Amino acid sequence: MVPRTWLWLVLSLCVGCPSVWGDIYEDRRAYKRAVFAIETGRLREFRRLREELGDYVLKPYLDFFEAKRRISSLGTSTATKLREQWEETPLEQRFFRLWLATQAKRGRWSRYLEHYEPSGGAEAQCYYLRALYRDGQRKEALSKVPTLWKVGTSQPKPCDPLFKAWIDNGGVTDEIAWERLQLALEANSVTLAKYLLRFFSDSVSAAAGTFYDVHVRPSTIRNIDKFRDDPYGRQSIVHGLLRYARRDPGKAMAMWQRYQTEYRFADYQRQYIEENLVIELSKFGNDVALELPWYSAEVLEALADQSTRTRNYRNLAKWIGALPVSYRDTPKWRYWYGKALIELGDAEGASVLNELASERTYYGFLAALLMNLEPALNQERLSIEPANALTLRGLPSVRRMSELYAVGDLPNARREYLYLFEGLEEEFRPELVFYLVEMGWFDQAVVAANRAELHDFLAVRFPIPFIDTFRRHAFETSIPLPILFAISRQESVFDPSAVSPKGARGVMQLMPRTARSTADKIREKQPDLDALMDPLVNIRLGAHYLAELMTRYDANRAVAAAAYNAGPTRVDEWLRRFSGIETVAWIEQIPLRETKSYVKNVLAGSYVYSQILGNPLPVLAAHERRVPSLHD
Q1: Cα torsion at 491, 493, 497, 500 (round to 10°)?
Q2: How many angstroms separate the Cα of 471 from the Cα of each of 459, 466, 481, 483, 615?
Q3: CA dist list (Å): 162 to 101, 141, 147, 180, 200
Q4: With contact defined as beta carbons under 8 Å apart, do 561 and 487 qualify?
Q5: Angle of CA points 629, 337, 576, to nearest 5°
């Protein structure tokens, strides 16, 4: 039998060798049985399986799972030996932090203090300061608490005893409490903000309450007599005006005209309010002509975006020309500057757009469309050095990553990948990317290619997994195949196990409610959460939902993509605000930065996929040049 230390490497060089394949396959099965045994408390079976695995590359993970199970009983010498055993693996720091946190939870403060290593995490810092406090170093411990306390979100529960000791020792002042209240409101941590109101003295308590009220009820800003003309009151007014402006910037601007005559705002506050009012007015489609003492880059961009909407190309060129060079040289403003110059009859516009059209970006594709040029793909083939590939595949971290992926432990496989990538010499990164593609780990291959700056290897960065499933449902729904791929790449990079913080699931990141509604409409059984992780189910329902959006928005891919990301309700509102304008200008008016970026990436990705799949599509078809008009 081939020794297991060499088995993985032999397998990589001898795909199809029956005896080698059988050994590695049996090891994987035995490993999974051992993991299940330790998870269910069947220790005798676990130890038997562990011994049978010999020197299988994932054996350290079995030892880690066993150590984790009895971590509270591990003494310093055992923990140190285990840490040394897992040196140069992601298990080392992971185990040590777990062990150290256990010492704190068990009240072994002297041991925690002896072995503490700064990690940056709030929980670990709180444990450390509690250990200092218990060790008699109270003054030093309490002096470091304000930095931990003054954050905009609630800190971990282990911090509570430390904070209580600090508060009981008079640590909270009005200034400190106000600073945290401001941070909490900026983070929209309303529950935390309400809790903080108890810490203010009588002289500041009312002002703090008003600050809180104007956040949760922005219409409070209309009661001008509610605010004091002092630093606390003026800060509340600034916060409230801008909160109110997100709902009704016109009324907020009118309120500002009253406030600025009756309150002694500092110049920087006036500038800040007026800049942000300009930006909010612009988002709602208002034509803004406010004269400011000076214009920040953000305001100049808002005014330029307004000019793209109104087709005022003279103003557009003026605002772009006033931008700082770092802004002006981005693809976005190069495109709009070139377009503005062409519309104004300036020949320089053509050279600006011709140069931009040589780049593989969303704006490069738009420039090519405007200039009647073939969009540039700038594609390269990934070149692999056989010697580097052999060396890479023999690395222990690569072997662990591969086996973890093979047994379905994606979280630990990702940890191994991240650990590997950080220490990998640049010359081996193309081989790593290629190997991830071979493994079928497409989402990680795309991430690795981007991190390694291998941007021109489109076959890697734009993979085509589940091609038969995508083809079938593209045909069934009459959706262009490239946009199905572009949406899925943007949503999950084709990861069937992906679950978003909001609960969207699978390859096309469907929300369960949307999936159930779509299933009803096509007369299919409603999927449960597990079914949504099945690419066959997920892609089918995602394609039908996208088809529904395409029908709703006159087959305009940009608008449908926006609705897929942000929801039809929001998109309908944006269409009403900016009815019937050019699609490229409408995209610039999208208020949500995430959705704006999403739509641009989907359109660019759709064009790239159309070339890869041999199904050419324009960046924008003729019927997509303007967004549909909606009316109440």
Answers
A1: -30
A2: 18, 9, 6, 11, 12
A3: 15, 9, 13, 17, 20
A4: yes
A5: 15
- Region for residue 359 given its phi and psi (left: phi exceeds 0; alpha: psi -120 to 50; beta: otherwise): beta
Long-range pairs for 409-416: beta carbons < 8 A, 24 or more residues apart: 409/61, 410/497, 412/61, 412/90, 413/441, 414/444, 415/90, 415/94, 416/89, 416/90
For position 384, what pLDDT does the model report?
Answer: 84
In contact, 530 and 575? CB cutoff 8 Å: no
- The amino acid present at 471, given as its one-letter code, is R
Please state, in angstroms and rounded to a whole number, the distance separating the CA atoms of residues 367 and 359: 9
Q: Under CATH, to which class is 297-370 assigned?
A: mainly alpha
HSE (side-chain half, CA atoms, 13 Å) at 208: 25
Strand partners, 626: 582
**Tokens coding 206:** 């009312």
- Residue 408: helix, strand or coil by DSSP? coil
Q: At what angle do helices 429-439 and 410-423 cross, to 10 degrees?
A: 160
Q: Which residues of 61-100 are buried (b: 16+ CB within 10 A; e: fewer)?
A: bbbbbbbbeebeebeeeebeebbeebeebbbbebbbeebb
Kindly list the distances between the CA atom of residue 605 and the CA atoms of 149, 377, 483, 484, in Å, as whole numbers in the listed order: 44, 11, 8, 10
Q: Residue type at 476?
A: E
How far out from the chain centre does Cα 145 lie? 30
User: pLDDT tens across 584-632, in order?
Assistant: 999 999 989 999 999 999 999 999 999 999 988 999 999 999 999 875 5
Per the CB < 8 A criterion, the answer to whether 591 and 537 are in contact is no
The answer to whether 596 and 590 have CB atoms below 8 angstroms apart is yes
Q: Count the helix, strand and coil residues of the chain and give each as a percent rounded to the nearest 5.
A: 70, 0, 30
- The whole-model pTM stands at 0.88
Query: Cβ(131)–Cβ(112) under 8 Å?
Result: yes
Q: Which CATH class is domain 467-624?
A: mainly alpha
Q: What is the 3-state secondary structure (H, E, C) of 98-138?
A: HHHHHHHHCCCHHHHHHHCCCCCCHHHHHHHHHHHHHCCCH
CA–CA separation, 453 and 103 (whole Å): 42
Q: What is the C-alpha separation between 555 and 548, in angstroms, rounded?
A: 10
What's the rounded Cα separation, in Å, for the pair 412 and 396? 14
Tokens of 400: 């662990």
Averages of pLDDT over runs of 10 residues in the chain (632 residues) are 41 46 85 96 95 94 96 95 95 95 95 89 95 95 96 96 96 97 97 97 96 97 94 96 93 94 93 90 71 80 91 94 95 98 96 96 97 92 87 95 96 96 92 93 94 91 96 96 97 95 96 96 94 96 98 97 97 92 96 96 97 92 92 54
Residues 67-82 pLDDT 10s:
999 999 999 999 999 9
Given the structure tokens 């039809």, which residue do they identify? 568
CB 518, CB 586: distance < 8 Å: no
Angle made by CA atoms 579, 583, 589, in degrees to the nearest 5: 70
What is the sign, positive or negative, of the torsion defined by CA atoms of 109, 111, 114, 119? Answer: negative
Closest CA to 322 of 333, 312, 332, 331: 333
Task: Report residue 381 as tokens.
Answer: 């083939």
386-455 folds as: 1.10.1240
